[in-house]
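tl;dr need the bound structure. longer version: we got a ligand (xanthosine-5'-monophosphate) that a collaborator sent over and nobodys looked at where it sits. i said id run it. heres the input, straight from their email, havent touched it
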Amino acid sequence: MVNEKSFVEEAIQEIRSKLTDRGILACSGGQDSTLLAVLANRAAGEKVLTVFVDTGLLRKGERERVEAIFRKFSLNYRIIDASDRFLSALKGISEPEQKRKIIGKTFIDVFEEVAKEYGARFLLQGTIAPDWIESGGSVREVIKSHHNVGGLPDKMNLTLIEPLRDLYKDEIRDISRFVGLDTDVQPFPGPGLAVRIIGEITREKADLLRDVTEIVERGVRDEYTDASGRPWQYFAVLLPIQSTGIHGDKRTYGNTVAIRMIDTSDAMSGTFTRPSWDFLDRISTEITNEVKGINRVVYDVTNKPPATIEWE
Ligand code: XMP
């Protein structure tokens, strides 16, 4: 376990010494990159531009939530709506690693454009230990290329600074609390809903999954009112499977969503949450009643390993 105060001091030192010119920072709104944005702001103020990209694969209200944090910490930031660009780059792509690589590349393209405009020479990234360990940075094989590692083009024109690279998720949470960030934020992957839409991604599918995700997140908050007792991560996955159902007296042929809830401390391994049947009944009923096009809900009962937390 790291000491929060000394980690913050060292990270600020590291940023100050490496950042010899302007830098940009990729903030996805997740705990890791938000912490980095706050640290970079403390270390270098206006010398760092925090960029938040709306990929079209975010949850409902995410952009507004993130902007409120940027304002609260008085960051130097820019919000870019690149949803058309991401969704068209992903058109026709179903293979998970290809999706991640396309998203990674599009992210970098967007950043490079902003960086050029801003005159940045550095890219600060919130890469943490599980990202590089699982991206083949150590003895382990490549499991998933996390966008903030595997998708980076070889000839990037920006110099990378990764002050959080040796931290694990639980340490990130402690340090975030220490600097005054809300830690009641569950992790959300950089590629966003892309890795939760199995098969080809479309805006319609993303909209559907946004509606389901909102129901799951609200349901979990209502069920586990004490934040400390909540599962570590909870979300829905849209499956490329249709099945027969019944609505009123009519036959339906609709989509299936899987609910994934995981208990873990560091995301390296974990067990599926055992919620009550009543809770599952409530969210399943709400999803099938409220979200047009979904007529079946399943619950994922797989631990990590053998499964990863995300489905892709
Ligand atoms: P997996 O699916 O590998 O996920 O068991 C472990 C944790 O990492 C998150 N995750 C990501 N985070 N970029 C990120 O910043 C990514 O590409 C990415 N993929 C997975 C996942 O949500 C879980 O918390």
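gonna send this back to them w/ a short note. The chain is about 40% helix and 20% strand.
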